[in-house]
Every structure is written in structure tokens, then in C-alpha cells.
């Protein structure tokens, strides 16, 4: 599908049981890269592409005036997608979240 130009969106259904909400997204990103996407494409599948596909113009990218939902990780997920699991800090709507 990806080779045919279909936008792949990352995201798993979360239930009260499994997968754990949010945690399995890191696994999904890894699996997307194992399936042939670059780390950048996998990151877009979890950020800008869902925002665009669902008409959420205020998020999905880092730009002035957009909603500031950000994660800071230890490592470079553009070269090693598993770095997304090494969360250092989280911001929601521009407010740093307590751990």
C-alpha cells in the first residue's frame, strides 16, 4: 500500500487490557520501519499524516501557532526509530508534563 502511495497512519486500538495505550505505538513504529518505511516516514505516520487525514490543522507539525504537543527523546528517531521509546520530556498544549 505504501509503495502505491496510500498514506499509512500509525495507531493502535487501546483497551483496558492490551495493548497499553501509547506504549504499543513504539512497537508499531518499529514494525513500520521493518516493513520498509524510513524512520522519517514512520514518524510522519504518527504525527503529520493523521493530523492531515483527520482535518486537524492545529497539530501534527512543529510551527508557530500550532498546538504544542511534543515529546523529547534521548536519541535520534530519524536514524533509529526505537529512540521514540526513550522519552525524556513531554509537553501537552505547550505545558511541560510532570512524570
TrEMBL record:
Q: What is this protein called?
A: Amidohydrolase family protein
Q: Which SUPFAM superfamilies match?
A: Composite domain of metallo-dependent hydrolases
Q: Where is the Amidohydrolase-related domain?
A: 2-92
**Which chain positions lie within coiled-coil regions?**
none
Would you say which domain of life the source belongs to? Bacteria
Q: InterPro entries under this entry?
A: Amidohydro-rel, Metal-dep_hydrolase_composite, Metallo-dep_Hydrolase
